[in-house]
Design a protein that fits this description.
It is a single chain. The protein is mainly alpha-helical. The chain has one domain. The protein contains 15 helices and three strands. It has a three-stranded antiparallel sheet with strand order 1-2-3. The longest helix is centred in the first third of the chain and has 38 residues. The relative contact order is 0.19. The N terminus is likely disordered.
């Protein structure tokens, strides 16, 4: 116990040192951007500081952030996706930071500083939810650890590479367009996955989901005996069972998939769950009841790497008071999600995913590429 406590304090000290040593980088990048915007007449010197301490920036309500973060934590821990996307909706639309950054135009550094700040703020929320969800689903016997680890191995390099290449180079308008485009694509794909032709290929996942639902309704769920059980594991094949149904996958495939998913998720400033869900249901053939926990485990590793890359390598600033309040909400939502998802049918979880994907996709794709939204805000 003493050794564990010592390691915990060392880890916290290391995080503290990283934050302290990077304060100068945060300040330098932000100060340069503010000075440039002031000289260009886009900021008024002496105006009341708002977001990130920028003169005249929006004033953020931390209570609103807390409430929105509860929803973010619940949706991510329930379907294994949309945490980062919903966090993005909160920062971009609910707080109005999207229109604020867009108002500076592409040419000023302040546009890209706020855009990068939105991206990494989203990831703080998703990372926290992913950590809690992974723990809860593992205890509940609904996490395929070897699959999550394989995805995480690939995620490490992808989540470091993209922030290094793109931080400080993406305007808010371009970010919104790409954000919406990829979400829309995933919504279309998952909609196809619900068709009879696609479902015919997933008999094992359907059988496992039905067995789990029947046990929940009967009130005799014995996750210790019927939850995920690893039977064999080799470098080319892993076999496990869930409620008497056998599944298998090649660990090499999720390693490759994890790299590309983490790279794209890091670019968009989200967790990648919206990419992992169709990957896990299609490539691995998992029922939705196993997807959320396995997705969360892979997302957690990607978020740790991506946050460190944005903040340590590129000095991206965040609003710590807002992040703190939002993390409290994430904890609440992430604890509730795993306890409520087992009562929601597998198909309903997929429908929730598709509806959110179409709404968010159309809204941000049109706003980014057309300059206005085709659908109203929440």
């Amino acid at each position: 116990m003493l050794r564990k406590n010592r390691m915990l304090w060392l880890a916290l000290l290391a995080v503290g040192l990283v934050l302290v040593t990077n304060e100068a980088a945060f300040a330098d990048r932000l100060t340069t951007a503010i000075t440039e915007a002031t000289e260009a007449g886009k900021l008024t010197a002496g105006a009341e500081p708002g977001y990130l301490g920028i003169p005249g920036a929006p004033q953020l309500n931390v209570v609103l952030g807390l409430i929105w973060a509860i929803w973010v934590g619940w949706i991510f821990s329930t379907v294994g996706a949309f945490g980062g996307i919903m966090a993005g909706v909160g920062h971009i639309t609910i707080y109005g930071l999207g229109d604020y950054a867009k108002g500076f135009g592409k040419g000023l550094k302040i546009n890209k500083v706020v855009t990068d700040s939105i991206r990494v703020s989203n990831q703080w929320l998703v990372g926290c939810s992913a950590a809690l969800s992974s723990f809860n689903y593992y205890k509940a016997g609904r996490l395929v650890a070897p699959l999550g680890i394989a995805l995480a191995i690939g995620a490490v390099s992808g989540s470091w590479l993209v922030p290094w290449l793109t931080a400080g180079k993406i305007s808010l308008k371009a970010y919104l367009g790409y954000f919406g485009m990829f979400v829309m694509f995933l919504g279309c794909y998952l909609l196809y996955e619900m068709t009879p032709a696609a479902q015919e290929k997933k008999k094992e996942a359907k059988a496992a989901a039905q067995a789990f639902q029947a046990s929940v309704k009967a009130g005799d769920v014995d996750m210790a005996a019927q939850g995920v059980k690893i039977k064999t594991f080799t470098p080319t094949k892993c076999v496990f069972t869930f409620f008497g149904v056998e599944f298998s996958f090649n660990p090499v495939i999720p390693v490759i998939g994890g790299f590309f998913i983490a790279a794209l998720a890091s670019f968009l400033g989200v967790g990648g769950g919206f990419l992992l869900v169709p990957f896990l249901t299609s490539v691995a053939g998992l029922p939705m009841y196993l997807v959320a926990g396995t997705s969360a485990m892979a997302v957690l590793v990607g978020m740790i790497n991506s946050i460190a890359s944005y903040m340590m390598l590129k000095g991206t600033p965040v609003q710590w008071s807002l992040i703190g309040a939002e993390l409290v909400g994430i904890v609440i939502g992430s604890m509730v999600g795993p306890r409520t998802s087992k009562y929601i049918p597998d198909r309903v979880l997929k429908i929730i995913f598709v509806i959110l994907a179409f709404y968010v996709g159309v809204r941000y794709m049109s706003k980014g590429f057309l300059g206005y939204s085709l659908v109203p805000p929440f």
